[in-house]
């Protein structure tokens, strides 16, 4: 045993029923996300288990078991965290954010429309994800871009909105029209959930 890993296996969270009743995002699409999410949970558990027995003396930056496991672990964990955010904050009625999150949006983007326009464009420019996150060092919201589950999150920022723009998120419902899907995403956001995160994290407004 080269590493004494102390990790517990995790299980996939259940989907809330409202996710199967979204307006413009089909049950079939949600099931596609969920199947992938279950796969990320399984791989996270598998990789952590394998890391417990890895040979540290064979570590190598070109190829080594340690490298491959640790790189792919970030993909699995990203897939879990991103989808848990995604599932949690859908199921609402959209509109403009009016609570705690809305205050931050108005302060840092000028208006809800400006925030949405920037996040939508970021989602179209990305290959996998776009996030609105609060950067604790800069003290403001920013819309970050992601190409995969594990690129390119920044340190010390808390994601509040996670927009999945992988093809499985829209191809069934909209074909190549990612823009129409993003509009549907905004229309199903549950701002009460996002406001709850702002309160839980105690983000100053
Ligand atoms: Fe997804």
Q: Could you describe the 3D structure shown?
A:
This protein is mainly alpha-helical and 205 residues long. The chain is built from seven helices and three strands. It has a three-stranded antiparallel beta sheet with strand order 2-1-3. Strand 1 and strand 2 form a beta hairpin. Helix 1 (27-51) runs antiparallel to helix 2 (65-88). The mean pLDDT is 96. It binds fe (ii) ion. Fe (ii) ion binds next to helix 1. Residues 33, 36, 83, 164, 166, 168-169 line the site of fe (ii) ion (FE2).
Secondary-structure topology with pairs:
Blueprint: H1 27-51, H2 65-88, H3 100-109, H4 112-125, E1 129-135, E2 140-146, E3 157-164, H5 171-174, H6 178-187, H7 191-201
Antiparallel strand pairs: 1-2, 1-3
Helix pairs in contact: 1-2, 4-6
The protein binds fe (ii) ion.
Fe (ii) ion binds at residues 33, 36, 83, 164, 166, 168-169.
Oligomer: single chain
Residue-averaged pLDDT, rounded? 96
Number of helices: 7
Strand content: 5-15%
Largest sheet: 3 strands, antiparallel
pLDDT below 50 for ≥5 consecutive residues: which ranges? none
Report the principal-axis shape.
globular
- The first-to-last residue Cα distance is 49 Å
> How are strands sequenced across the largest beta sheet?
2-1-3
Task: Name the bound molecules.
Answer: fe (ii) ion
């Amino acid at each position: 045993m080269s590493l004494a890993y102390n990790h517990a296996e995790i299980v996939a969270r259940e989907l809330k029923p409202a996710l199967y009743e979204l307006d413009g995002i089909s049950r079939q699409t949600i099931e596609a996300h969920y199947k992938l999410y279950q796969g990320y949970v399984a791989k996270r558990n598998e990789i952590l288990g394998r890391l417990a027995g890895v040979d540290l003396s064979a570590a190598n930056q070109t190829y080594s078991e340690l490298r491959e496991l640790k790189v792919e672990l970030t993909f699995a964990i990203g897939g879990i965290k991103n989808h848990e955010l995604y599932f949690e904050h859908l199921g609402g009625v959209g509109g403009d954010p009016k609570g705690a999150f809305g205050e931050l949006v108005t302060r840092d983007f000028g208006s809800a429309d400006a925030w949405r326009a920037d996040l939508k464009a970021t989602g179209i420019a990305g290959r996998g994800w776009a996030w609105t996150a609060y950067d604790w060092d800069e003290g403001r919201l920013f819309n970050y871009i992601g190409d995969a589950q594990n690129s390119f999150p920044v340190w010390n920022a808390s994601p509040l909105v996670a927009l999945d723009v992988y093809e499985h998120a829209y191809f069934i419902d909209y074909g190549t029209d990612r823009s129409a899907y993003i509009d549907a995403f905004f229309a199903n956001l549950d701002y009460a959930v996002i406001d709850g995160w702002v309160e839980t994290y105690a983000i100053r407004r």
